[in-house]
Amino acid sequence: MKSQIIQQGAEAIIYKVNNKIVKNRTKKSYRIPELDKKIRKSRTKSEAKIIEKLKKIINVPKLIITDLVNHNIHMQYIQGQKLSEHLEKLNWKEISKQIGEILTKLHNQEIIHGDLTTSNMIYVENNNSNNINSQISQATHNKAKKSLNIINDNIKSNNSKLFLIDFGLGFHSKKIEDKAVDLHLLKQALNAKHYKIADKCFKIIIKNYKPNQYKLIIERIPIIESRGRYKKKH
Ligand SMILES: Nc1ncnc2c1ncn2[C@@H]1O[C@H](COP(=O)(O)OP(=O)(O)O)[C@@H](O)[C@H]1O
Ligand SMILES: [Mg+2]
Fold first, then answer.
1. Which residues, in sequence order, are bridge partners of residue 111?
2. What would the mean pLDDT of 177-204 be, rounded to a whole number?
């Protein structure tokens, strides 16, 4: 069995085992042991429940096993490009549009992601697109390259998929405030990690974000921002 640690976060260790991901919630020695077990169990359960609920609605990894005794979730490994590392090099306008559409569906299910950053988004380009990519690199004439590039963009936008992962901080809520905070955190994450394109990305995301009550949600964002500034000053 080939096992490799992918990430060791504050709350969990992520292993890749063969073609699976195992997310293991680790022990926290600063918590009372009994409480620690309870928290790890309930977060594992809640993350698995949200993934299961979302599988029919958006692209999320397939759940394989939920092991509440060992606080593990086994899920499908998504082979793709993590947006935190690749967004600028990819078709970020199309991807931003997809983010807006995904968040529409998520919030219409009254689910808040809780940690909307580009580290929790994986882009999977379809195979046809990969084939064309190799043709583009082989094409000698600029004209041929140009037309292949146009075909490629169309294929990508039609068939490529954006996966949302990491529902460890996810929860159910109908509140305008919670949905607006989700967007606000995404905006902050874009500004921090992708500052050159952040404004444009966020505009496209909002343009494609159309859940119930979207006007109220969007109007709440500057209010949340101004509260943040107030907190810093005082
Ligand atoms: N299903 C998956 N497929 C591919 N990579 C994954 C998957 N789940 C997690 N990862 C990788 O592991 C990292 C951490 O996993 P995540 O669930 O976000 O845990 P954390 O709560 O520590 O952020 C992700 O940023 C991603 O690189
Ligand atoms: Mg994460």
1. 172
2. 98
Q: Give the number of the ligand closest to the Cα of residue 47.
A: 1
Is the C-beta atom of 124 inside 6 A of ligand 1? no
The radius of gyration computed from the CA coordinates of the chain, to the nearest angstrom, equals 20
Ligand 1 pocket check for 11: Cβ under 6 Å: yes
Check if the beta carbon of residue 39 is closer than 8 Å to that of residue 49: no
Looking at CATH, the fold of the domain delimited by 81-125+160-233 is given as: Transferase(Phosphotransferase); domain 1 (1.10.510)
pLDDT tens-digit readout, 67-115? 999 999 999 999 999 999 999 999 999 999 999 999 999 999 999 999 9
Domain boundaries, given as residue ranges, for the chain: 3-76, 81-125+160-233
Which sequence positions are flagged as catalytic? 115
Predicted confidence (pLDDT) per residue in 147-188, tens digit: 666 665 555 555 779 999 999 999 999 999 999 999 999 999
Q: How far does residue 166's CA lie from ligand 2's centre (Å)? A: 5
Name residues whose C-beta falls within 8 Å of residue 137's C-beta, 6 or more positions apart in sequence. Answer: none
> pLDDT digits over 43-68, tens only?
999 999 999 999 999 999 999 999 99
Q: Cβ(61) to ligand 1 under 6 A?
A: yes
Q: List helix spans (H) across 160-213.
A: 176-193, 198-207
Type of residue found at 56: K
Architecture of domain 3-76: 2-Layer Sandwich (3.30)
